[in-house]
Amino acid sequence: MTTLNGFQQFGHGPHKVIALNGWFGSSADWHALTPALDPERFSYAFFDYRGYGLSRDIDGAFTFDEVARDVLALADHLDWQRFSLIGHSMGGMAMQRVLLAAPERIVKMAGVSAVPACGSRMDETRVAMFSACIDDVTKRAGIIHFSTGSRLASPWSTHLAQLSLRDSRREAFAGYLPQWATGDFAAQIDGNRTPVKLFVGEHDPTITADLMTRTWLAWYPNATLETLRNAGHYAMYEVPVALATALENWLSEP
């Protein structure tokens, strides 16, 4: 029997969209966008990975191939034959596994500070640094603070870190790390003609416009890039109305 992942729905419009969060997040990351989203034109499913959020108690292998199967099972449950994908951070890499699993079902993909198909190409030292935050909420907060340009109030970074500790199981959080830190399937998506829109925050020190140009834009011939002002790595929290507007403007294009 297939286990159905937890998810939250918003809207009832004809354009179906499934959203995948980042390593530190959950489906709740998208809540701030909903006042600016159009429920008449779009239907959203905010998905939780196994071990995260509404799927926190679901066991699994915690791989992106498993995520792809779970996303497709959700689409089948909702009777969504074709749909678009949104992926934040590691969710950008995860959504590309969905594309590879069922390319005929994907209409468009939008990446928000999205990790490319080559992963983050971390060396052992950097992997160890990220691994150290698995059991240390202070280190989680430090990474969040850095990824937003070291410019926002530290209590907010601490708050987001505490939410990530609450909303993800340790084995899931640890399991997804090598998937996006060192995984690489770029050769499988090179030349893919799926329409892609990439959003990067102007203050994000790692997922930059230059990185997107050298990876996503080089591999997807129908990809475009937009830089969001006054945002770092967490645009859905930092500039939710601007992000929601830009997303739906692009999703509405023919």
From TrEMBL:
Keywords: Hydrolase. InterPro entries: AB_hydrolase_1, AB_hydrolase_fold, Carboxylesterase_BioH. Residues 17-238 form the AB hydrolase-1 domain. Coiled coil: none annotated. GO terms for molecular function: hydrolase activity. This is Hydrolase. It comes from Paraburkholderia hospita.
